[in-house]
Amino acid sequence: MAGSAWRRSALAAGVIGVAVMAAVDEIVFHQLLGWHHFYDRSTPSIGLLSDGLLHAAELLALVGGFFWYADLRRRGALLPRAAWGGFLLGAGAFQLFDGIVDHKVLRLHQIRYGVHLLPYDVVWNVSAAVLLLAGAVVLWRARPRSDGRP
Questions:
Q1: Which of 9, 22, 134, 147 has the most CB atoms lying inside 10 A of its own CB?
Q2: Among 20, 1, 5, which residue's Cα sits nearest to residue 87?
Q3: Do 106 and 40 form a contact (C-beta atoms < 8 A)?
Q4: What local confidence, expressed as pLDDT, does residue 3 receive?
Q5: Which DSSP state fits 75?
């Protein structure tokens, strides 16, 4: 039972973490700073459309994750420390995926244009690794013990 609650708590909050980090990226870098769109390899209109689709997906993930989280809490199956670990892992996973796959492999967009990218890439990916490491540590410390205690 404890292992199942640990896993579900981490996964529900992980979905929320992915959605929150996607929202931070979209709001800060796409809208406020205007550094890029989700898809920059076409017209500005297509870039704006891709931002809207990203925003819709992050909102769906956020709502779904919070419904899942609320259900766990209602049933008394939520383990807050496991949830925090999952949240940090989700946020870091989104950021690392965006930094490596979207920026470098698929080249959907870069963090910024017209500048030397290395410092931006290093900060982006190192901060993702820090979030992942923090999440892994919190989740590991929240793991169920062999005596069944959370």
A1: 9
A2: 20
A3: no
A4: 78
A5: T
Tokens 């420390």, residue located: 81
The answer to whether residues 12 and 79 touch, using CB atoms and an 8 Å cutoff, is no
Contact 91, 20 (CB under 8 A): yes
> Side-chain half-sphere of 32: how many Cα atoms within 13 Å?
7
- Answer yes or no: are the C-beta atoms of 96 and 21 closer than 8 Å: no
Q: What does pTM read for this prediction?
A: 0.92
Convert the pLDDT of each residue in 1-29 to its tens digit. 577 999 999 999 999 999 999 999 999 99
Q: Are 109 and 37 in contact (CB under 8 A)?
A: yes
Name which of 55, 67, 69 is nearest 23 in CA terms: 55
